[in-house]
Design goal:
This protein is an alpha/beta fold and about 300 residues long. The protein is built from 12 helices and 8 strands. It has an 8-stranded mixed sheet with strand order 3-2-4-1-5-6-7-8, sandwiched between helices. It is elongated and about 65 Å long. The chain binds guanosine-5'-diphosphate. Guanosine-5'-diphosphate binds next to helix 6. Its main location: membrane. It is found in: Cell membrane; Cytoplasm. Keywords: Cell membrane, Cytoplasm, GTP-binding, Hydrolase, Membrane, Nucleotide-binding, Receptor. Its EC number is 3.6.5.4. Part of the signal recognition particle protein translocation system, which is composed of SRP and FtsY. SRP is a ribonucleoprotein composed of Ffh and a 4.5S RNA molecule.
Length: about 300
């Protein structure tokens, strides 16, 4: 956990640099708040979350009678923690057999990598996982998923050129027959502005329900944290179309746009199950609001 905190701190340095810089002076005045507003916006916190944080912070400063900008920084960490707190949620498995997790996201967001990491995480928790390669048209996507399946030594259902919904149906049926704990379906990720993609994803969702009436139990969106406000746009678009149950926010290592999590918390608070700070299998961690706020402002 300590190592991970170091990674998170290192990863968010670029986002935090501009913000922490605001507190180097000796006075708490309008100038400080103006600088802070600009820094939060630069970090892709967005207008709404920035306004909310500034108001909340000013109230905290007044109540605490703080006189030192460093105290204001601590109070900002508190305000940010409170804002992000509702995003904290753990992925629960075991309630269904299998738990069916549908994973969506635009190409390049880190979807396949995150599925590899998630598989590892579940395998570590003694869960048997079956992967479904529902992105049937991109050969590279299927191959990459097969590599992750191999590394994690889990089964994969994959069929070139098949209907994505049919592959997912087969995977859920196979998992039921074999008593597997979790099915993770990797779906295609062309841009969400293309209506066709959303229709395909909705169809997969409908067909999963045919294989198991209670499924899918989770619809997770993988978003690239490094895309800042674009990530928020994607959360809204996918949530409108599919009703998301959670997010995996990737690439928080070395990003200057980590403030987007505050924007998500304010504008579309879909829970964040995991965050990613690297390309390796173990670079996936549960989201902790306090840790995130402290890492950002350290
Ligand atoms: P997909 O198209 O959404 O399936 O994306 P991929 O899983 O293929 O990932 C795209 C690229 O992002 C790959 O080079 C991954 O190694 C990289 N990537 C994924 N997650 C992370 C992360 O948390 N941090 C970093 N630095 N890179 C990541």
């Amino acid at each position: 956990r300590e190592r991970w905190m170091d990674r998170l701190r290192g990863g968010l340095q670029k986002t935090g640099a501009g913000i922490t810089q605001v507190f180097v002076g000796t006075r708490i005045d309008d100038h400080l708040y103006e600088e802070l507003e600009a820094a939060l916006l630069m970090a892709d916190t967005g207008v709404k979350a920035t306004e909310h944080l500034l108001q909340d912070l000013k109230r905290r400063v007044k109540d605490s009678k703080a006189t030192d900008p460093q105290q204001v920084k601590t109070l900002l960490a508190d305000a940010l923690t409170d804002l992000l707190k509702p995003l904290e949620k753990a992925l629960v498995v075991g309630q269904y057999q299998p738990t069916v997790v549908m994973v969506v996201g635009v190409n390049g967001a880190g979807k396949t990598t995150s599925i590899g990491k998630l598989t590892r995480h579940l395998a570590d928790a003694e869960q048997s996982v079956l992967l479904a390669a529902a992105d049937t048209f991109r050969a590279a996507a299927r191959e990459q998923l097969a590599v992750w399946a191999d590394r994690n030594r889990v089964e994969i259902v994959s069929q070139e050129g098949a209907d994505p919904a049919a592959v997912t149906f087969d995977a859920v049926s196979a998992a039921k027959a074999r008593g597997r704990d979790v099915v993770i379906a990797d779906t295609a990720g062309r841009l969400p502005t293309q209506l066709h993609l959303m229709e395909e994803l909705k169809k997969i969702r409908r067909v999963i329900a045919k294989a198991d009436l209670t499924a899918p139990h989770e619809v997770l969106l993988v978003v690239d944290g490094n895309t800042g406000q674009n990530a928020l746009t994607q959360v809204k678009a996918f949530d409108d179309a599919l009703t998301l149950t959670g997010l995996i926010v990737t690439k928080l290592d070395g990003t200057a746009k980590g403030g987007v999590l505050a924007a998500i918390a304010r504008e579309r608070p879909v829970p964040v199950y995991f965050i990613g700070v690297g390309e390796k299998l173990e670079d996936l961690e549960t989201f902790d609001a306090r840790e995130f706020a402290q890492a950002l402002l350290s």
